[in-house]
Design brief:
By secondary structure, this protein is an all-alpha fold. It is built from 14 helices and no strands. The longest helix is centred in the last third of the chain and has 31 residues. The protein is globular.
């Protein structure tokens, strides 16, 4: 049975990722916009970041881990889904940068070759696909560890290859850091997200055994959210940081808050099958994630002009971007190729 709560949570997380990318330009403009508006946006950002990508990864862990996995078939099936998506959207957003942001042809070729290798993406949100490929590479062995299954010689050979690839990136990162201001960082993000991946499996499958009431969990959630939101304000006001504390990878807030959200949702309609409408919205979530920056760019150009109130502007922009992204992906998925890349 496909659970209702999983589909609902996946779709809502997709919407909140759109919220993050809609709010972030205003959030980093502290002092340039009215303080009251910034505080509201800070709350939007904190709520959105307590869901977002971590929830996507936790859902994947819950859905994938603990099942019987044939390593070869698993790799083939995931490669058919992830590689076409990564290649298409990398090219798509490189062309988007070329035509709409005055990138040169040289910039375009760099983004699609060495730039993609160095950063793992050609547009800010595509890091997720590169990260997830690394995550999928280690999934069969994490699954065997969870199920207490014996690791075979064939498994060890694959693990050795993965380790060699990882160490190659690590070595190249040292070289790049020696000749440029920074190294290669994107390949390391999968290790952090592995925590969410495993946590999703354990929380989702043991929610009834975790002896914490929903009232306690929700109270804790709002207390931590309030603390994080306040710390964001103080830190930005004092010029201590230029990034959201919850946005920071590895923050205690970025782990505990999504874990609470996931646990509470896993108890909601736990034995209720998903509806056709919710299944559809859930299936569109990845496509929404991939296409929404393109949609957001054009919608913001008009809402910023037509709507003078910043908060209303943001709410309208999130709504229109979500609806337009849904429609775009529904139309795209009518083609076989569209289903391959979303």
């Amino acid at each position: 049975m496909r659970a209702y709560w999983i589909d609902l949570l996946r779709f809502l997380s997709g919407v909140l990722v759109i919220s993050i990318h809609t709010c972030v330009a205003s959030w980093v403009s502290y002092g340039q916009i009215p303080t009251f508006d910034w505080q509201i946006i800070n709350i939007f950002m904190s709520i959105s970041m307590s869901w977002g990508v971590p929830i996507f990864v936790m859902i994947s862990g819950y859905v994938i881990l603990g099942r019987d996995i044939d390593t070869r078939k698993f790799y083939v099936s995931k490669a058919k889904r992830l590689i076409p998506a990564l290649l298409f959207w990398s090219i798509f957003y490189s062309l988007f940068n070329y035509f709409f942001f005055d990138n040169s042809l040289k910039d375009l070729m760099w983004e699609l070759t060495i730039g993609l290798f160095l950063s793992g993406k050609t547009y800010y949100h595509l890091w997720y696909l590169s990260m997830f490929i690394w995550l999928i590479a280690v999934t069969p062995f994490i699954n065997k560890w969870i199920k207490a299954e014996k690791i075979t010689l064939a498994d060890l050979k694959i693990v050795f290859i993965i380790c060699c690839c990882y160490m190659l990136f690590n070595s190249l990162s040292f070289v790049k850091a020696a000749i440029t201001p920074s190294g290669i960082e994107w390949y390391n993000s999968f290790a952090l997200n592995l925590v969410y991946f495993i946590a999703g499996y354990y929380i989702g499958n043991n929610s009834k055994e975790i002896n914490l009431s929903n009232r306690f969990l929700l109270t804790t959630y709002f207390i931590l959210l309030s603390i994080a939101t306040l710390l964001n304000y103080v830190a930005v006001r004092e010029g201590i940081i230029k990034d959201n504390l919850i946005l920071g990878a590895g923050s205690i807030f970025s782990f505990v808050l999504p874990a609470i959200v996931f646990l509470v949702f896993s108890r909601y309609k736990a034995n209720v099958a998903s509806t056709p409408a919710m299944k559809l919205l859930s299936e569109l979530a990845l496509g929404m994630y991939l296409v929404h920056p393109f949609v957001l760019y054009f919608i913001q150009k008009y809402t910023n002009i037509l709507i003078s109130n910043l908060i209303i502007d943001i709410i309208v922009t999130i709504t229109l971007t979500t609806l337009t992204s849904i429609i775009a992906i529904i139309l795209l998925r009518k083609m076989h190729f569209g289903r391959l890349i979303t």
